[in-house]
Specification:
Structural class: mainly alpha
Largest sheet: none
Number of helices: 10
Radius of gyration: 19 Å
Distance between the termini: 52 Å
Shape: globular
Number of strands: 0
Helix content: 55-70%
Amino acid sequence: MENRPARLRILDAAHELMLTVGLARATTKEIARAAGCSEAALYKYFDSKEDLFVRVLSERLPRLTPLLNSLAAEPGQGTLEGNLTEIARQASLFYEQSFPIAASLYAETQLKRRHDDALRQIGAGPHMPIENLDTYLRAEQTLGRVRPDADTFAAASLLLGACAQRAFAYEATETGARPPVDEFAARLAATLLGGISVAHRPRGPRP
């Protein structure tokens, strides 16, 4: 591990600590110690713990934001159903892996408020995927693949909200198992398309 670049060691250590002890208790001092470097060295690569958190989300977790940005930059590629299915799949995996990291913040109100303020200053936050998906859907709306009267913000909120809910809503069930991600994503996309797609035709009842 010591032969790896310091930035990568810091990201790896931050990811591991955020998963095991939660974001609230993963201090930059502990992250630096786990990475085998000084806290001053950590701040050579990352401006703050919040900046490090955002880098962990974007570089160590499923790449939801790059997918949304690439689709918004080039709308009309592929099928709308295929794109929404892949968005739902990546989002489900992203929230599944990020929820254990961020959950501890909600137990400490003042820390959560400071964290949110810091995210605002660097232009990040949990609202960004919704805004990015809304941007993509509006681009598809302009091309005529999404109905002109569709509420793209509501559609984005519904899709990503369901993906986030999957991360924690099933632990109290008898098996404690989440719905399989591929089937879950396909069903979400197909259902959403029934409300927003110009080309979508309702499917028959599920067997």
